[in-house]
Amino acid sequence: MLIIKPGILAFYSPHILADKHQHAALQLVWPGAQGHWQLNAEKGTAPLLIAPQAEHDLAAEHCWIILLEPLSVAGKHALQHMNGQLLVSLPGPASAADSTELLAALSHLLGLDKQAFNLQISDSRLLRLQQQLDQCFNGGCIKPSQWRARDIAAGLALSESRFLHLFREQMHMPWRPYLLWRRLLCAVQALHQGKSATNAAQDAGFADSAHLSRTFRRHFGLSVREAVQLARSD
């Protein structure tokens, strides 16, 4: 089971074993009724929040793995729960049984509504840029070659240096790592649509499937083959 939309990437797995990795998203590991996890040296059955860029490995059984954009309302609210810590357990019931119930259950866990997964961006130019990036979720992925910082800056009537500064100020991370994160989401979307790893790599702007696989493992702790199995398990 897989959910991929602006602000959130989530999948359910009966078994996952991820090597050490780190990523830009805030992560929630949410066990089902019989689920449990082991992260680094810790074990548990309660929902677990993992801070962005926190290096970790993960073994989990019957869990939802939920990645939240830190700038979504849900991401900001979850970060407040963390209060600067890298790992925080949350009190909560077993997670939803299927993807149609997950967002409602997650919203209830965090005390939010379903709009909480949308990004909060105050600058209208960056909001338009984000809407363009979100076309990927509707099958209209724009090739990464069109996302050079200087070209985007020109389209926004900004200098390249001003654009990079504004983006980091608003998004709390540099443009290039954020773009890489969105390209990985694009690849996941392509895999879920049934495309091969080679075609997914091409769609998301990676040199080849080997390049995509290396980047995948670094950011998710999984191989592309494992990601394909998870993406198609629903």
UniProtKB/TrEMBL annotation:
InterPro entries: Homeodomain-like_sf, HTH_AraC. Residues 127-230 form the HTH araC/xylS-type domain. PROSITE patterns: HTH_ARAC_FAMILY_2. Coiled coil: none annotated. It comes from the Bacteria. GO terms for molecular function: DNA-binding transcription factor activity; sequence-specific DNA binding. It holds the Pfam family HTH_18. Keywords: DNA-binding, Transcription, Transcription regulation. PANTHER family: ARAC-FAMILY TRANSCRIPTIONAL REGULATOR, HTH-TYPE TRANSCRIPTIONAL REGULATOR EXSA. This is Helix-turn-helix domain-containing protein.
